[in-house]
C-alpha cells in the first residue's frame, strides 16, 4: 500500500488491483532512497536486536535502510508487485536471512498481529479507498512498551504537481486524533511534531520543495 500516491479523491477502484498496476510491468515509481525524514528521526535510535514494522512499505527503500542499520523489519504492502521490487533491492543490498520479512496484506482488513519497537507509516495516503484513521489507530496499538511511532505525511505539495486545486492532507492535530493520542498522557510522550521542508527537483530541473508533517511519539515502558 504505497504511501505517495496523490490526486483525485477516493474512487470505487479495488485497492489491491490499483496498486498492483502501479508497481507492475517492471515499473519503478520511486527513487529507491529511504525517506529523509525517517532517516533523520530514527537514525540515532539503537537498532540491533530491535524490531520495526513498515506499513505501506511500497518498493521497500525504508525497510531496506532500517535493516541495514540493524533493525529486524516486517515490511507490509497490499501489492505483491511492490514487495517483489523490495525483495530484489534487498538481495542487491546483500540483505539475507530474516533481516526483512515481506508481507502482503490489506491493512484495512488484515493488520499484522504483534508489537514492534518501531512502527513507521510514511505517506500513507491513497487515491483509492483506505481506512487511514483506523489503520493509524492500529499502528499505535502495535507499538511495544518503550517503542517509537513515526507517522510522516504530506502537508502541501509543489504547485507543479497539480493542474487544479491540490488535495487536502491531514494536519498534525488530525494525525494525533487518528492515532487516538490527541490528548497525550502518561502512555505517550511527544518526541517531535513538525512541518518539514523536503527538497525536490521540478520537472524543468530547477530546485523545488514540498512540506510534510512529522509525528514522532514514544510509548511509555509501563
From TrEMBL:
Keyword Aminoacyl-tRNA synthetase found: no
InterPro entries: Methyltransf_25, SAM-dependent_MTases_sf
Pfam name, any one: Methyltransf_25
Domain of life: Bacteria
Methyltransferase domain mapped to chain residues: 53-147
Signal sequence segment: none
GO biological process, one term: methylation
Record-given protein name: Class I SAM-dependent methyltransferase
